[in-house]
Amino acid sequence: GESVGLHLPTLSVQEGDNSIINCAYSNSASDYFIWYKQESGKGPQFIIDIRSNMDKRQGQRVTVLLNKTVKHLSLQIAATQPGDSAVYFCAENSGNQAGTALIFGKGTTLSVSS
Amino acid sequence: EAEVAQSPRYKITEKSQAVAFWCDPISGHATLYWYRQILGQGPELLVQFQDESVVDDSQLPKDRFSAERLKGVDSTLKIQPAELGDSAMYLCASSDGTSGGVETQYFGPGTRLLVL
């Protein structure tokens, strides 16, 4: 079936560096994408989302880029901090019966060393 | 800040026993989701409610799993009987449910289930 995937299972960076986490999706009909951060033992925490009519959206220290031509999504974290260490998931709307449930990728584990 | 509440946070049970998980969504959120997350993987949808109605339970193993949201507010997910393969994190999420389209989903802390 169609699914969202991430290019790298792990990413290690130094504190203060910029981090880029990538995600490829396969459903060209998806019109909504979202990034979540999940710390150990906790539920996913919303970071930022983007709709398919945009190619870039910025938040506080985070930027999401959407390239619909190659079906690629990325999350950029500026000045990465130790508190950013977590698993990051991208997700897309699944087109289920209600059209709103999400399909998640496997996740990228970000490790930030100080 | 409003949050999705779940209980219990942890549950250990023996196979063939019954377990139940509870979720209280963000106040006013009409749409409620139950997801299951196996260790090392992303969450997968089990069931979706719009108010008190099920709008998608296609991935719910209905021979052993049931879910209800009787008054359109809080929800209960039940497993009977539990099997070893049910060990996972069970996550509840909610969204506003009024836009008619996709909306940001907010997750609770989850219930970690271990079946022995």
Computed over alpha carbons, the radius of gyration of chain A is: 14 Å
Largest sheet of chain A: 6 strands, mixed
Helix-strand sequence of chain B: EEEEEEEEEEE
Task: Report the strand count of chain B.
Answer: 11
Profile the largest sheet of chain B: 7 strands, mixed
Keywords:
heterodimer, A: 114 residues, mainly beta, six-stranded mixed beta sheet, five-stranded antiparallel beta sheet, B: 116 residues, seven-stranded mixed beta sheet, four-stranded antiparallel beta sheet, 0% helix
Outline the structure in words:
The complex is a heterodimer of chains A (114) and B (116). With 114 residues, chain A is mainly β. Chain A contains no helices and 11 strands. In chain A, the strands form 2 sheets. In chain A, strands 2, 4, 5, 9, 10 and 11 form a 6-stranded mixed beta sheet that branches. Chain A has a 5-stranded antiparallel beta sheet with strand order 1-3-8-7-6, with no helix packed on it. The termini of chain B are far apart. At the A-B interface, β4, β5 and β9 of A face β5, β9 and β10 of B.
Quick synopsis:
The complex is a heterodimer of chains A (114) and B (116). Chain A is 0% helix and 54% strand.
List the helices and strands and how they pair.
The complex is a heterodimer of chains A (114) and B (116).
Chain A: E1 4-6, E2 10-14, E3 19-25, E4 32-38, E5 45-51, E6 56-58, E7 62-67, E8 72-77, E9 86-93, E10 102-104, E11 108-113
Parallel strand pairs in A: 2-11
Antiparallel strand pairs in A: 1-3, 3-8, 4-5, 4-9, 6-7, 7-8, 9-10, 9-11
Chain B: E1 5-7, E2 10-13, E3 19-24, E4 31-37, E5 44-50, E6 53-56, E7 65-68, E8 75-79, E9 88-95, E10 106-107, E11 111-115
